[in-house]
Write a structure and sequence with these properties.
The protein is of the alpha/beta class and 387 residues long. The chain has a single domain (3-258, 276-371), classed as Alkaline Phosphatase, subunit A. The chain has twelve helices and 14 strands. It has helices spanning 36-41, 66-73, 92-101, 112-120, 154-157, 162-184, 186-202, 204-207, 224-237, 258-282, 351-362, 368-371; strands spanning 3-4, 10-11, 14-21, 30-31, 52-54, 60-62, 77-84, 130-133, 149-151, 244-250, 289-295, 314-319, 326-328, 349-350. The strands form three sheets. Strands 3, 7, 8, 9, 10, 11, 12, 13 and 14 form a nine-stranded mixed sheet that branches. A three-stranded antiparallel sheet has the order 4-6-5, covered by helices on one side. Strands 1-2 form a two-stranded antiparallel sheet. Helix 2 packs across helix 10. 50% of the residues are buried.
Length: 387
């Protein structure tokens, strides 16, 4: 049940999921700047101590993420350290599939966000209960009988001709088929598309007029994640009943050229997140929103002279006005004797613990059937919208 926002109007809690696709280097995001082992392992791909914005005597943000640190300093960011799962997969496709379906040991046909949408809207009355900003549809939002709307560009969508809209839908459906047929088979993909795939795109028609009714003093950056979060803000403030948003910030697979690529991505992300929160507050629409920022795995301890390779023991962020900011979980030991397989960080908290926390404490639903089990939760909220 939703709580009152103070002016007599009930607001339902909303979850915004931001996927950092490719495997964000958590050690170069929240830097263990007091650990000599970190600098020994990374002679090139490192964040020097004079580039760190400390949050305590041990850890600090890479200074390119200064705007994210500003949110942290305001008490609005919970940093979940060492997030992962046993026997972490280093495959992008399988690793992300595990995060999307909560099934590390077998292939699943249902995404965890799709299960949440079904819980929130069991009769499928609102095709906008779940909205993806981006091309195709993430596996997390896919399940037979569950409709989730996907729109690539809110501005351009409203300007498309009928023929252009149909072509865009066809491209998105083809993208979905290419992405998921290798994992779950042609049969499941075609069944999904036959039952809900077209509906998942039809809801975009309702969104087309929204940009015309939106005004804001916030000037977002000119990059994909800023544009996506601006679209989230526009849809959320339009009051169309969306409870779950999903979007992706790509490019984090930094095997090479990481010293140039990763700082740019972190700067884009942190700026977009701060602008998004500012925009929501300007519209009196921040109190009901929490953001989860996650990635499929961390990177290995040692650099490869140009970047870092797939690893484990990454990190996530929970962001919002109702968050009790701080550090949650334990930062994995960076000492060589504690490395997993002589090169990886050990995870210290299961990713399904974080999902369960958000599902039960923020969204007010039973997490067990959604994450396929019971997991110990953290307590990152100072208050929630639930009565």
């Amino acid at each position: 049940m939703a709580a009152s926002n103070g002016n007599g109007t009930a607001k339902d809690p909303v979850l915004v999921v931001v996927q950092l696709s490719g495997g964000n280097d958590f050690m170069n995001t929240l830097v263990p700047y007091s650990e000599g082992a970190y600098y020994d392992a990374r002679p090139l791909v490192r964040v020097n101590q004079d580039e760190v914005l400390p949050i305590n005597d041990h850890f600090g943000f890479y200074n390119v993420a200064a705007r994210l640190k500003s949110l942290y300093d305001a008490g609005e960011v919970a940093i979940v350290q060492g997030i992962g799962y046993e026997n972490s997969s280093r495959s992008h496709f399988r690793g992300m599939d595990i995060w999307h379906t909560c099934e590390p040991d077998k292939i699943s046909t249902e995404g965890w966000v799709a299960r949440l949408i079904r819980d929130l809207d069991p009769d499928g009355e609102n095709p906008l209960t779940g909205v993806n900003i981006g091309r195709g549809l993430p596996r997390a939002m896919a399940a037979a009988g569950v409709t989730a709307t996907s729109v690539g560009d809110l501005d351009n969508y409203g300007l498309m001709t009928t023929m252009e809209v149909e072509a865009e839908r066809t491209r998105n459906l083809e993208l979905f088929k290419r992405m998921y047929t290798p994992a779950v088979g042609q049969g499941m993909v075609m069944d999904y598309l036959a039952q809900t795939g077209n509906d998942s795109l039809a809801g975009a028609d309702i969104l087309a007029p929204i940009p015309a009714g939106y005004t804001s003093s916030v000037e977002y950056g000119s990059n994909p994640i800023a544009s996506a979060l601006r679209d989230v803000a526009r849809i959320h403030t339009a009051g169309v009943g969306t409870r779950v948003f999903y979007t992706t910030h790509a490019g984090y697979d930094t095997h090479s050229h990481q010293p140039g690529v990763h700082p740019r991505l972190l700067g884009e992300l942190s700026g977009a997140l701060e602008d998004f929160m500012t925009d929501l507050r300007e519209h009196d629409a921040a109190q009901e929103v929490s953001i989860l920022v996650f990635t499929e795995f961390g990177r290995r301890m040692k650099d490869n002279n140009s970047g870092t390779d797939h690893g484990s023991g990454g990190g996530a962020f929970i962001i919002g006005d109702n968050v009790n900011g701080g550090l949650y979980g334990a930062y994995p030991s960076v000492k060589p004797a504690d490395w997993l397989n002589a090169e990886d960080l050990k995870h210290t908290i299961d990713y399904r613990s974080v999902y369960s926390t958000l599902l039960e404490q923020w969204m007010g639903v039973d997490p067990t059937p959604i994450v396929n089990g019971t997991y110990e939760q953290i307590r990152p909220f100072a208050q929630t919208m639930l009565s």
